[in-house]
Design goal:
- It is a single chain.
- This protein is an alpha/beta fold.
- It folds into 2 domains: 131 residues, no CATH class; 78 residues, Rossmann fold.
- 36% of the residues lie in helices and 22% in strands.
- The protein contains 8 helices and 11 strands.
- It has a 4-stranded antiparallel β-sheet with strand order 1-2-3-4, with no helix packed on it.
- Helix 3 crosses helix 6 and helix 7 runs parallel beside helix 8.
- The longest helix is centred in the last third of the chain and has 18 residues.
- It is elongated and about 70 Å long.
- The two termini are 32 Å apart.
Length: 228
């Protein structure tokens, strides 16, 4: 068992073959166990870094790197009235994006109206009232968590003020890109929300690498690899 950090263990089931492969510069696959952001233990097969990568310090540039959190001003709470929106999904999206959203019981207490395209097209009285009051109306294409996450990213302007979670996720993908470019066949990242996964896919594409999302929410994650 190789302890990479407090949250990650690398398990070599055959010590003899692992040592032999390491010495020959062809590390054999091992089992990686780690605790994801939700506290669950995850298992996956991975290829450990070679001796050259370990000696050069490249092995520490991968997903096991955990940056120190930076101090950031707290976001202002947002009062949202969800119209035709699944409240439990909106709660989940806000929790995953780590943004303070309070759902109001009526339009009078809201700062923002959130609805779907199908409801908005019907032009109900409530939407007309919101527009007359000058309330911002955000329209989602579908009543899905992914759409809600994208909307919350725009509302809270997360592009210009990335959170600690986003910074950590982007640093993780940077390390994964270096590993794949260095010869490791593939690297699977930690589970992230749809907004962060989209950013990770963009970074992989910029580096001329392939990527795909795997798994089911909320444990869906990005795999980065070199396309053959």
């Amino acid at each position: 068992i190789e302890i990479q950090d407090r949250q990650r263990l690398l398990i070599h089931h055959s010590v003899a073959s692992s040592v032999d492969g390491l010495l020959r510069g062809q590390p054999s696959q091992a089992e990686l166990r780690y605790r994801d952001p939700g506290g669950e233990i995850c298992k996956e097969q991975t290829t450990p870094p070679s001796l050259e990568e370990r000696e050069s310090g490249q092995a520490n540039a991968g997903p096991s790197f955990i940056p120190q959190p930076t101090v950031q001003e707290p976001l202002e709470p947002l009062r949202v009235y969800p119209y035709g929106i699944a409240r439990n999904r909106l709660e989940r999206a806000a929790r995953r994006m780590r943004v303070p959203v309070y759902m109001t019981k009526g339009l009078g207490q809201a700062e923002v109206l959130l609805t779907t395209k199908s409801f908005y097209r019907k032009r109900p009285r409530l939407v007309a009232d919101a527009e007359q009051r000058g309330l911002p109306v955000y329209v989602l294409r579908a009543n899905t968590v992914a759409q809600m996450e994208a909307c919350l990213s725009d509302v809270f302007d997360l592009e210009s003020r990335p959170s600690d979670a986003l910074r950590q996720a982007l640093q993780e993908v940077e390390g994964a890109i270096r590993q794949v470019q260095g010869g490791i066949p593939e690297v699977t990242l930690s589970p992230q929300n749809s907004y962060i996964r989209r950013r990770q896919h963009e970074m992989a594409r910029t580096a001329n690498l392939a990527s795909e999302s795997r798994g089911k929410e909320p444990h869906r994650r990005v795999r980065i690899f070199r396309e053959e």
